């Protein structure tokens, strides 16, 4: 009696699951988690086996009508059983379809099956001619002899066909064909594993001797790892000030887990997943370098596929990656590390809207393995979880070698502006003087600019006209290099006007400033300093960021100007001064996390100063010097900040005391979006379960984006489950017009 497989079909917008018969010859090999080829309405399709139903669970008439599975896409299941359970958890918690969840768990290239591995033609020296034959060949056909000589010297006596015929070697196809006919070479296909680190050498780095504080933190972690397997240990929140040696602890904990024959996953924020970070891990595990897989969004599809398969084949036991690496199919997992756990980039802003850190905790629970969440400025969510006993707290309060925390000076820019009535000063006189001193001593400076929402926009001083994007509710940003106005949301661009399009005045000017403007001011003030700028505009070219950072590290640059991109993780021992040009930008956004983000950012940025022998100094320019986020950051007082901020959150009933979900309705038709949301809102309200609160329907803070109008209601609930169930019940019971999109963002981070 054949078994029946429940197969979830790929590519559908909502879940399509059908039953298929398991053919006899594949009886033992088709398991839950296998990718299979199946007929669907007489067309070939691909799907994932969600479950196998044993014979006897169903009646025969139904069985008789089923079609058999046509074949396997991969020889083995591509999801491990805990990952399967995690997929269910995600679908329920974040209100996403199973299909959407699987789509984000398995890289696109890997979904298509093994056939997508890269095949290259290679030319192999099959029968090496003896010297006599070789001489004869040389007289008859010199190029053929050259090719033989070339192949003789190559490792494995072979070369890629494309390289041989390429522009530097220039062997012709006829030369190769002639040698092939003579039986001297052979041309064949070879599967190539694309290694993003190909050609790089890693010098092994040894474990450092931990200082006493690290030692005791490490000990606690080893204990947790020890109890894993039987029961899930509590996740550990490792709060360690910047430069306290957290990474060294991760490395040694991973080593410990690997020695036990288990695997590890390390999540790092996308932005700090630079080659330096990856290298640190590759170096430490140089002896088992091939066992380290790197997963992030800048890899090519092919590279990602290969790295992922290395994990699946158990060749790689350590995975380092951005948020989606939490789905890496590492089996027998011993440890998950989430570095910079407070980072908002762990939250995915498309369906399924999961949070990588929260999934690390879920996966740790399912796999009964240890989880470390590390940060200098933990998220208030995690801090609260320590308070409620869900997480265990481990702290590092000293920097390595007791280096002092940098001195932070706060400059009131309102006073500076009064001194300088010509417009907003970019550089206060204190910062300028500090820079002069540091540069004179041959030290390096980082200038940090928080650009969110305060880029240069075009403003008419006569009529108040502001150049806005026609598709989004956002001012356009002026880019001087191209003399264009560009929308930072949708990319819409147009030539910058010379006169105000409304009133025709020529006095149209720029409000605010961006990194470009800062760069030109800095170049003119410090005319013999070497200046470089890092932001998304200058870093479009692949590898550019690495080059600039490398030059800075090698002291070929004196002043580095940049946005968020340079705030994290980098280690520049010669940087002794960090200037924060506009600290309060992030404070004036309509978001209850604004203060938390500002505190985190200032602390991270300050952490870049004084990581070497010389003490560091930070100058923070702000229009609101007394804001708590700025004052607590100035005193390096995380606990003070967290305590005060949590009190406010509790009083105003915000996360982490409640779960918050944003329900957004989008459409190109404004009325339809508004009307749909009103209907939805009425339904949600009618049977609102006890304890759930909701706002009235409102325009989203960003009311229009990419031509879509957006309206939203925000809901809060002590229980995410209860809120999710209510939302699902109401939304599933309604049908929405085709051009209206309804989304739910559970535990939302982006409120606009
Ligand atoms: P964090 O991750 O907490 O910011 P890192 O792990 O990057 O800190 O450590 C900061 C610097 O201190 C690194 O250069 C690291 O190599 C060094 N370091 C860490 N632990 C030790 C140790 N036990 N002995 C000597 N140097 C150490
Ligand atoms: Zn736009």
Residue windows where pLDDT falls under 50 for at least 5 positions: none
**Helix- and strand-based class?**
alpha/beta
CATH superfamily of the largest domain: P-loop containing nucleotide triphosphate hydrolases
pLDDT average, as an integer? 86
SSE order and pairing:
Blueprint: E1 4-9, E2 17-21, E3 35-40, E4 43-53, H1 60-65, E5 71-72, H2 81-93, H3 98-105, H4 108-111, E6 118-125, H5 131-140, H6 142-153, E7 158-160, H7 161-164, H8 173-181, E8 185-192, H9 212-227, E9 236-240, H10 246-259, E10 263-267, H11 275-284, E11 292-295, H12 301-312, E12 318-321, E13 333-338, H13 356-367, E14 370-375, H14 380-387, E15 392-396, E16 407-412, H15 413-419, H16 429-440, E17 444-448, E18 457-459, E19 477-479, E20 484-486, E21 493-495, E22 509-511, H17 515-525, E23 531-534, H18 544-553, E24 559-562, E25 575-580, H19 594-606, E26 617-622, H20 628-634, H21 638-651, E27 659-667, H22 670-686, E28 693-694, E29 698-705, E30 708-717, H23 720-732, E31 741-746
Parallel strand pairs: 9-14, 9-15, 10-12, 10-13, 11-12, 13-14, 16-26, 17-24, 17-25, 23-24, 25-26
Antiparallel strand pairs: 1-2, 1-4, 3-4, 3-5, 6-7, 6-8, 18-22, 19-20, 20-21, 27-30, 27-31, 28-30, 29-30
The structure holds adenosine-5'-diphosphate (ADP) and zinc ion.
Question: Would you write up a description of this structure?
Answer:
With 752 residues, the protein is of the alpha/beta class. The chain folds into five domains: 4-115, PriA, 3(prime) DNA-binding domain (GIY-YIG endonuclease); 118-192; 212-402, P-loop containing nucleotide triphosphate hydrolases (Rossmann fold, 3-Layer(aba) Sandwich); 407-454 and 513-645, Rossmann fold; 659-746, Ribosomal protein S10 (Alpha-Beta Plaits), CATH 3.30.70. Helix content is 32%, strand content 22%. The chain is built from 23 helices and 31 strands. A seven-stranded parallel sheet has the order 11-12-10-13-14-9-15, sandwiched between helices. α5 crosses α6 (142-153), α9 (212-227) packs parallel to α10 (246-259) and α19 runs parallel beside α20. The chain starts with a strand and ends in a 6-residue tail after the last strand. The mean pLDDT is 86. Bound molecules: adenosine-5'-diphosphate and zinc ion. Zinc ion (ZN) binds next to loops.
